[in-house]
Structure formats: structure tokens, C-alpha cells
Design goal:
The complex is a heterodimer of chains A (317) and B (505). With 317 residues, chain A is α/β, with parallel strands linked by helices. Chain A has 2 domains: 160 residues, Bordetella uptake gene, domain 1 (D-Maltodextrin-Binding Protein, domain 2); 97 residues, 3-Layer(aba) Sandwich (D-Maltodextrin-Binding Protein, domain 2), CATH 3.40.190. Chain A contains 10 helices and 11 strands. Chain B has one domain. Chain B starts with a helix and ends in a 6-residue tail after the last helix. Chain B is globular, with a radius of gyration of 22 Å. Chain B contains 21 helices and 2 strands. The chains are: A alpha/beta (317), B mainly alpha (505). The interface between A and B is large, with 43 and 34 residues.
Chain lengths: 317, 505
């Protein structure tokens, strides 16, 4: 009896889906932010969905499900129906948490339809530090292994990997000091307890503006809008690129015709003045990628972190 | 100065004033109902404020906190039971005054001196927190380790009933704080394979459960139908309340001791873990020694009541000073407020004074406004406030449980947190039945992670040398204070044994 019931329900559902596929979206769309309200991910999603509502003509319901390096929220969306009505904000953590041993989930469990922005790491020191360029910093660190205490936003966090990527590419040795987030690390740099931080430009912006800090290099694809005069490590001749990013995706198996509707709308939404203005204010770099480019980017990132994280000597499967 | 003007206009926003007013009224009800504490009020209302703009949300929490502490005195005066633990000393003289037919005067003194203490504490906050924050900005891992260590030893000093039980609860809290990802090596500890435990046991659901459901369970367990009807009959013998406002001579005679008491309250508040109950008992005891009329104390002394109500409200400003400048809680309610601020995306600590300075100023102004609001509302409703006590306890229990479930889910939209909340409620009930205090447990849970992470971070910075804790002056001073705190009970026992006397409470 129950089987019949489930079968007939499934039949009705698939009929309903088939009927509505032509006119997606037919009802409100739920989008999950796997981070707390008020943060970068949350605000990006909210400003993005306010544009998407105008373009698609249906309401977007934003729900925050924070915790466990975004695993909890992404896990939730992964287990929803891939019908185009359950979307997710996907941060850089999606390519890291599997290698960190937190969960089996990865970016492979999602179909991306857009990348919105990137946030590069920025090697920042105090104004009175003896190094004025990346080369001087590296020369000192090479001569004094382990002497430079570098703060990051937590062991296994993206900014920890940024510092370790510098070590990997240049052969220097730093002492990594993990903090609970970027802000306490910046506070410790301000208080003189550590010598450098590798966090985002917007997190050190206040110190740079007040003249307390100087940024030696940005580890992004291109220069950061926050410190436009600072060269990237790539420009300086070092192949170091570590950056946070934010993308939008649906659970794996979402029909391609729905994804292409979302992709088209997201392209326009991310290109809107409102979103661009918000990114500029917050110090994020507007870095749109379409669905195909984003999927390739996620694959490359997943491979990069699968290799980089075990080298930190912390992975705990 | 212009920042203060902007702040003033911010808090003068009608929405902010409305939520502050709702908070003050809600706080009066919560404070006056025996068993509903200020901490519980702030804990169960915190999740509801996330739908508001931060200043409005915090206005409501500040209103609840300030007025619940004052309203606890109403219950202390009228039925000889402290409405919140902070007003324990108000029962000594308050109830005696009520029996003498001076209940109105006692209620008036409670309102006026609570507001005086609250405003005094807020002024301490305003004048001391900015220099203190400039000083603590240089604090690093060693200093924060020292602070957490000092804070945790205070739990031994303040759990006066049973030091052993206090320590056990505190260490249980530290043990629970180790659940989740290791702060230095990012290894999973005690997560039982659950993704939900990777970040550790969430602090706010634990607070909501311990102080909400835990207290309700305890009240249901202790509930005695006969005692309740006897109590109601007693309350119906409506004693005359008399005049509400004290005259100038009464205010003048109490002015010296109440001012001292306000200062002591603010200092006690600033000490981690020591809250309003301790401050008011200390102040009442000392005032009796220094008073010109010590014989009246405990038999209806206006001065004694004034001193204790001043102390428990000036604690708030002191506790907030510690919380905002150092990021460690001055008492249980500020522990919840730390969680609320973090939910708003702000990290309490010296950096808040540079990065979120406008919000810090808003908090200070809201504290002042909350005191003025309950002063006005309290004086107007002084005679009517006794009505709150007639609320059926069953209604209260059901509403508290409902708010606990809704609130703990709303924090992260995660039903796992609701489970944590219920488990903590049962734990809180067991604690209360067996004589363990929830306070040290909460302190251990909150400070345990800070203790561990900063100890290990300091050792990374010093490359393994423990000397760093002694060579840095502030951490050295904190460690010396810690040792003194630990030795104090021993020294006290020796001193009093040799003197052969015993102090009365």
C-alpha cells in the first residue's frame, strides 16, 4: 500500500515538474548561506538575491545555516531535491573541507552557475618592520628560519594555506600562529605579538589607512581594489596564488535547462551596479565566471587544496 | 564628542526607544517573577533580536538586563524571595520594611537607588573603558591566558557554599569546551562523528537550556500545591504600602554609604564571575559595620536596603567594562551578551573600541537610558507592581519552554541546537538538585577554549618556553593574582581560626 502511495506521489511530482519545467521558476526559491548572518557570505548572497528577484520575478528566501567551516549548510543543500528551487552560496571552504577531514562533501557535489567575487590574501606587516618589499621579507625569512611569526585565521584556514603557499614556493620557513578568525590575528599584529599576517586586504585596511601597517604583496589573480598600488606576487615573479571566493550553485543533478536560466540571470545580477558597488565598499574583487569556467575553476581549486592541505601536517582523516 | 552626538541621535530613534521600552517592561516582569533571572531573560530573548537591526536588538537586551535586576528587588521586598539572585540582600531589610507597613517606601527606594547604582556603574563604564581598551589592545596570547586563568580561579573563590562542587562544575565546563576542532592542530576531538559537533558545543543553546528549561524543571519539581495556596493567602493579606518617595533627610543620611557601595559594586562587577549577589552581600555587610545605626540592619533599615540595591545595579556597568574591553564575561548575563554581540558579527574586546566605536557608544547610551526608563516606569507603577506576582506559574513555565525551543532553533536554524538546549536543561536541573552551581560550568565552557588556545598560542610564539608567562609583566601580575586568589581561602581559614571569631552573614 505504502509503495503504491509513494509511486503515485512520485508520478504526480514528476508530472508537476514536467509541467513546470517550461516555466521555471514557478515559485519561490530557497537559497542557503552556510555562514552566519552579517558576514561576507551572507551579505553577498542577500544583495545578489535582491537582484535575482527582479530578474526572475519570484521571491528568494535566504536561510543561514552556519557551522563547521560551512559544512552544515552545504550538507543541507546537497541533500535537497535538485529541482532548481534549492540553491546554495558556495565559499572557498567547499574545496578545502574534504582534505581537512571534516566531511566527505566537496565542490563536486554541486552544479555551479556563477562565481561572484574573490578575496585575495595580502602579506601585511607593521609599518616599522625592516622589510619594505616582498624580496626583503623573503631574504630575511630565508636567513632566519622560523623567526617570522605569521598570524592566520585558524589552522587549516585559507589564510594559513596562504602563508604555507609562500613557504612552499620560496623555500622559507615561517612560524604559523593560528587565531580564531582574521580579526584577532590583525589585533595581534597591531599589538606587536606577531610579525606578519596573511589575511584579506579588507581585514587590514583600517591599519593600512591609519599608517600602522604596510602590505608587501597581494596573492590574488590581479591587484586588489583596496590596495591598488601593491603588486601581486605573480607580478613580482612568484607563482603564489591563494584567494577566497564566493560562488552560487545548485545540488548535483539539477536539470541543465534550469541551470542555464539561473546562469543567465546570475550574470546580469552580478553585473548590476548594486552588486558592484557593494563589492567595492567591502573590499571584495568583482570576479564573475560563467558556469563552465566556474566548474573548471572549482575542479582546479579542489586539486590544489587536496595537495596543499596534507602538506600542512595537520590533516586528520 | 561628535561621535557621542551621533550616538545620541542613533538611540533617540523611535524604533530603538520602542524596543528599549519593551525590554524594560519585559525585564520588570522577568525580574519580579521569582525564578526568572536576568540571565534567563537575556538568554531566551537573544535569538529573537536577530530579526532586528543590531542597535534595536541590543536596546531590548540592555533594557531587560537592567530592569530585571532592579525588579528582582520588588519580589524581595514583597514576598521575601529574591526575584533574581542579585537581590538576595534586598530581602534583609526590604521585607522587614514591608511588614512595618512601609512597603511603598521600600519599593521607592529600590527604584531610585537601583537607578542611581546603574547610572554610577555606567559612568564607570564610560570613563574607564576607553583608556582600558587602549591599554588592553597590546594584550597577546600570554595576557589572555593569564586573564582566563584568573577568571577561572575566581570560580573557586566565589563558590562559597562548596568550593569542591564549584571546581567540579567548572572543570566539567572546561572539559566540554574541548569538544570540537583542536584550536592549534585542527584535529577533531570528541565529535562522535557528527558534523554538528565540529565547532564544539554551542554556547548560547547551553545557556538557554541551563537557565531556561533547567530552572523550569526545578520549579516544577519543587512545586507544592499546598504551599502555593498558603503563599497566595498570605499575599492577599494586603499590607498597606504607604508613601513611595523617600524624603530629603532619608536620602542625605544614606548618601555616604550608598556612594561607597556604588563604587564597590562596579569593581566587583568588573571581576570575572563575581556578580550582583556577591556585590550586594559584601556591601550590605560592610555598610552594617560602618553605619551609624548598625542595630537597624536586618530589621528594616532604609540605608541597608539602599546600599544593597545600589550595589547590585552598579555591578552591571562594571561587568560590561570587563566584557567590552577584554572580551571575557564579568558575570553570567554578560556571558550571554558576548554571544549576542558575536551573533551580530562583533567580537567584544579592545578592537571593538576602534572598529565598532559607534556601537560601543550606543551601548553606553542605552545603559543610561535603560536606567532612566526603569526609574520613570518603576516609580509610576511602584504600587501596581505587586500584581505581577499573581501570575500563574504554569503560564510562566509554558511560555519559557516555548521561547527556549524557538530561540535555540532560531540561532542557527539547526535542530541539533534544540537537542543541545534540552540536554543542557536536564543537566541544569541535575546541577540544581545536587547543589552544583551552573555558574562555574558556564564559565568553564566559555573560558576553557580561551585558556587552551592562548596557552598553546603563547607557547608557539615563545617556541616552547614557559618563561614567557613570567617575563611579560601583565601576565606575570595576573598569575600572581591567581595564586593569591587560590591561597586566600586557606589564609582566611587560618586567620579566622587563630582569631577565634566567626563573621555573620
Amino acid at each position: 500500500m505504502r509503495k503504491v502511495l509513494i509511486l503515485s506521489l512520485a508520478a504526480i511530482l514528476s508530472l508537476a515538474l514536467a509541467a513546470s519545467a517550461g516555466q521555471y521558476p514557478a515559485r519561490q526559491i530557497a537559497i542557503t548561506v552556510p555562514a552566519a548572518p552579517g558576514g561576507a557570505s551572507d551579505m553577498t548572497t542577500r544583495i545578489f538575491t535582491s537582484q535575482m528577484e527582479k530578474l526572475l520575478g519570484v521571491p528568494f528566501i535566504v536561510t543561514n545555516r552556519p557551522g563547521a567551516s560551512c559544512s552544515i549548510g552545504m550538507e543541507y543543500v546537497k541533500n535537497r531535491a535538485p529541482d532548481g528551487y534549492n540553491l546554495c552560496y558556495i565559499p572557498v571552504e567547499s574545496v578545502m573541507i574534504r582534505a581537512l577531514g571534516l566531511t566527505d562533501l566537496s565542490s563536486d557535489d554541486f552544479d555551479f552557475f556563477a562565481r561572484a567575487m574573490t578575496i585575495p590574501a595580502a602579506l601585511t606587516v607593521r609599518k616599522e618592520a625592516p622589510w619594505n618589499t616582498l624580496d626583503e621579507f623573503l631574504a630575511y625569512a630565508k636567513a632566519n628560519p622560523g623567526a617570522v611569526k605569521t598570524g592566520n585565521s585558524g589552522t587549516g584556514s585559507i589564510w594559513h594555506i596562504a602563508a604555507s603557499a609562500i613557504e612552499e614556493a620560496t623555500g622559507i620557513k615561517l612560524t604559523h600562529v593560528p587565531f580564531e578568525g582574521g580579526a584577532p590575528a590583525v589585533a595581534a599584529l597591531m599589538g606587536g605579538n606577531i610579525d606578519a599576517v596573511t589575511v584579506s586586504p579588507s581585514e587590514v585596511q583600517a591599519g593600512v589607512d591609519s599608517g600602522a601597517f604596510k602590505v608587501l604583496a597581494v596573492l590574488g589573480e590581479k591587484r586588489s581594489g583596496v590596495v591598488p598600488d601593491v603588486k601581486t606576487a605573480l607580478e613580482l615573479g612568484y607563482d603564489i596564488k591563494v584567494l577566497g571566493w564566493g560562488a552560487f550553485a545548485a545540488p548535483k543533478g539539477t536539470p541543465p535547462e534550469i541551470l542555464s536560466i539561473l546562469e543567465k540571470a546570475a550574470a546580469a545580477a552580478i553585473d548590476s551596479d548594486e552588486v558592484k558597488k557593494f563589492f567595492k565598499e567591502r573590499g571584495f574583487d568583482h570576479a564573475y565566471l560563467d558556469a563552465a569556467a566556474m566548474s573548471a575553476f572549482a575542479k582546479a581549486q579542489l586539486a590544489f587544496y587536496d595537495e596543499a592541505i596534507p602538506k600542512l601536517g595537520i590533516a586528520s582523516k | 564628542m561628535s561621535e557621542w552626538l551621533t550616538g545620541f541621535w542613533n538611540v533617540m530613534d523611535p524604533g530603538v526607544l520602542l524596543f528599549l521600552g519593551i525590554g524594560v517592561l519585559g525585564g520588570m516582569v522577568i525580574g519580579a517573577l521569582p525564578g526568572l533571572t536576568a540571565t534567563m531573560g537575556v538568554a531566551i530573548l537573544t535569538p529573537l533580536t536577530f530579526w532586528f537591526e543590531p542597535t534595536r536588538g541590543f536596546a531590548m537586551l540592555i533594557g531587560v538586563w537592567n530592569s530585571a535586576i532592579f525588579a528582582g528587588g520588588i519580589t524581595a521586598i514583597l514576598i521575601n524571595t529574591p526575584g533574581t539572585p542579585a537581590s538576595i540582600a534586598s530581602t534583609f531589610d526590604g521585607y522587614a520594611l514591608y511588614k512595618q507597613g512601609k512597603g511603598g517606601l521600600a519599593l521607592g527606594i529600590n527604584v531610585i537607588y537601583s537607578a542611581f547604582g546603574g547610572i554610577f556603574g555606567t559612568l564607570v563604564l564610560i570613563f574607564f573603558s576607553f583608556p582600558l581598551a587602549r591599554f588592553t589592545i597590546g594584550f597577546g596570547a600570554t595576557e589572555y591566558f593569564g586573564l582566563a586563568f584568573f577568571g577561572l580561579t575566581m570560580m573557586a573563590a566565589v563558590s562559597s557554599d562548596s568550593v569542591l562542587k564549584g571546581m567540579i562544575a567548572g572543570f566539567a565546563g572546561i572539559l566540554f569546551s574541548t569538544i570540537g576542532i583542536d584550536p592549534m592542530l585542527a584535529m577533531k576531538r570528541f565529535t562522535l562523528g557528527s558534523v554538528n559537533l565540529i565547532d564544539g558545543v554551542q554556547f548560547l543553546p547551553v545557556m538557554i537550556g541551563m537557565f531556561g528549561v533547567g530552572e523550569v524543571l526545578n520549579q516544577i519539581f519543587e512545586h507544592d500545591r499546598l504551599a502555593e495556596s498558603a503563599e497566595n493567602a498570605r499575599r492577599h493579606v494586603n499590607l498597606a504600602l504607604g508613601r513611595v518617595l523617600p524624603n530629603l533627610a532619608e536620602i542625605h543620611s544614606a548618601s555616604r554609604l550608598t556612594t561607597i557601595s556604588a563604587m564597590v559594586g562596579a569593581v566587583v562587577g568588573a571581576i570575572p564571575a563575581a556578580g550582583g549577589d556577591i556585590a550586594s552581600i559584601i556591601c550590605w555587610g560592610q555598610a552594617r559595620k560602618w553605619s551609624k545605626h548598625p542595630e537597624e540592619y536586618g530589621k528594616g533599615s532604609l540605608e541597608g536596603l539602599a546600599v544593597s540595591t545600589v550595589a547590585n545595579n552598579s555591578v552591571l556597568g562594571g561587568a560590561l567594562t570587563t566584557m567590552l574591553t577584554l572580551g571575557i564575561p564579568g558575570d553570567a548575563a554578560t556571558a550571554v551578551l558576548i554571544g549576542s554581540l558575536m551573533m551580530y558579527g562583533m567580537q567584544p574586546g579592545p578592537k571593538m573600541f576602534t572598529e565598532a566605536k559607534p556601537f560601543v557608544i550606543n551601548i553606553m547610551l542605552l545603559m543610561l537610558l535603560a536606567n532612566l526608563a526603569f526609574l520613570a516606569i518603576g516609580l509610576v507603577t511602584a504600587k501596581a507592581s505587586a500584581k505581577v506576582l499573581a501570575v500563574n506559574p504554569r503560564t510562566v513555565w509554558v511560555s519559557v519552554c516555548l521561547l527556549c525551543v524557538v530561540g535555540s532553533f532560531a540561532l542557527n536554524n539547526n535542530s541539533f541546537d534544540v537537542g543541545i538546549m534540552f540536554a543542557s536543561g536536564i543537566l541544569g536541573f541535575v546541577f540544581r538538585r545536587t547543589g552544583y552551581a551552573p555558574g562555574p560550568f558556564i564559565l568553564g565552557l566559555l573560558l576553557g577554549r580561551m585558556l587552551e588556545a592562548n596557552l598553546r598560542r603563547a607557547l608557539v610564539i615563545s617556541q616552547g618556553s614557559y618563561l614567557i608567562f613570567l617575563t611579560r609583566p601583565i601576565s606575570c601580575i595576573l598569575l600572581v593574582l591567581t595564586v593569591l586568589t587560590l591561597l586566600w581561602p586557606l589564609a582566611k581559614a587560618l586567620l579566622f581560626r587563630s582569631a577565634g571569631t566567626k563573621t555573620g552573614s
